[in-house]
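pinned: reference chain
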Amino acid sequence: MQAKTIKANTTEGIIKEIDHTISDGFKPTLAIVFSSIKQDWKTVSEVLNKKDIIVFGATTAGEFIDGDIEEGSIAIMLLDMNPGYFKLEFFETTTETTFETAKKLGNKAKNSFTNPALIIATGGIFIDGEHIVDGIMEGFGKEATVFGGMAGDDLIAEKPLVFTNNKSKDNALIALIIDEDNIDVRGIATCGWNAIGTTKTVTKSKGNIVYTIDDKPALDMLMKYLGVDVKIDEDKEIVAFLNSWYYPLQLERDNGDSVIRATRFANNKERSLICTGSVPQGAKIKFSLPPDFDAIETVVLECASIKDDEQQQADALIMFSCVSRHLSFGALMSEEIEQVQNVWKAPMVGFFTYGEYGKSKIGTNEFHNNACCVVALKEK
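pinned: its structure tokens
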């Protein structure tokens, strides 16, 4: 299987790159398209559709091929994957029906191939990522292989969306279902954020809304404990809380693992935190600080750990990296991307997400924040 990556800052530019890439007889069947919400991704999708190329698309908060990071651009990976080795599904959903929609996808995937794996992307700003993971596993089984990311919208935090041939929606779920009997799919989601202080208890929560921590208003606790100032717009009940990308909650699991929950919004009236994934009442948490730069080394080592041997390579790499990593690492972000790519020595496409889906280092499917999720594809 051959993979080629291209990028451009204009619609005309990316169309020229597409035409140039296929001018030598290369015949892609699948396009992984990561586009800024500001770009004309509809026209690009139409161009690919006319060339009989199936589109797996998501809007972004920054996009890259290899270690070359852009903002406001379009990045594409074109693959000549055998059409018999994959299927693409697109489901519209709502915040209330996310679990059931994901369950339908799990059932669909289970019946698609003997050994399927899923690469997914979700749109919408209030979709609960944990419901996506739980729903897929309910429909498929806990042995499901799931990797992916939440679409972004250049930090506008209004309407990130996913798209495919002739379909697009913000509250939607797109999935690439791959036949693992023919394509090896392996990946890992890893983080490196540092928990600080003592363990605290979520004393009141519902779904992804945390009302109190240790019986105190959650927003006030976070502001006081970490010294974070939230600019309150008195005219708005729900306010964007972008500083929270740097100071997420670390949710402790019963299996000894932990996952990050970013608190993307705050409710000014209720003094609550609105997270990107569920936080159960009674859960044990710690606050977190941005990682030291040695977190890059941790990510690279954990990405290398999923290889069978040091010489193993891949045909293609897809990375879903939380926008918080880009905000925290700045110019060093390209170093993390390049080092991960060097582990596998394959073409890479990726984007900065609002949340990530993938197996943790102990092999458990989770919805993550502030993580780097890497997927390696290799035709058998």
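why pinned: The chain has two domains: 3-190+293-379, 194-289. The first strand starts at residue 3 and ends at 8.
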